[in-house]
Design brief:
Blueprint: H1 3-25, H2 28-44, H3 55-73, H4 82-85, H5 89-109, H6 112-123, H7 128-135, H8 139-160, E1 161-165, E2 171-176
Helix pairs in contact: 1-2, 1-3, 2-3, 6-8, 7-8
Amino acid sequence: MTARSFDTGVLEFAPRLRAFIRRRVRNDTIADDLAQETLLKVYRSRATLRDDTKLEAWLYQIARGTIIDHYRRQRPAEELPAAIAGESPDETAALRARVMVSMRKFLEELPEAYREPVRLAELEGLPLARIALRLDLSLTAVKSRVRRGRAMLRKKLQDCCRFEFDRLGQVIGYERRHLLCCEN
């Protein structure tokens, strides 16, 4: 393939390549950056294209690799232990205790059908099958009620406070949205 026909072929596929990337990253700015990065990789490695008839597949393979690299770069950095980060274990425990007080308050506000399954799953740590036996419900009903109850509880907590989580999903900070929210 001549340099000119290579350039023409790549330019012909560029808009479709960008759309392919955009569907996978769901952000126009990032898609533009990754499309540009992909095209740079394409031009740098054009000598590795062995079969001119497979240009499109080769381009998409490079685009997929670029997208994977992007997501790898997005992984969160390792979390610093609380003592190094400037937060004592006592402060962390106190914060979690305050959040639990609010969660218990909001749990009591859930409709009865959801309150007990969520309480048993979240506070007592019972397996869903055991909850089903205890409440004389089907396992499917318990799964549904726990899922819906958790969603209601999450909404109540998020309406009340803005939370900050570590990479494991543990609360490491919060800010009240309303004066009387998230308090005893």
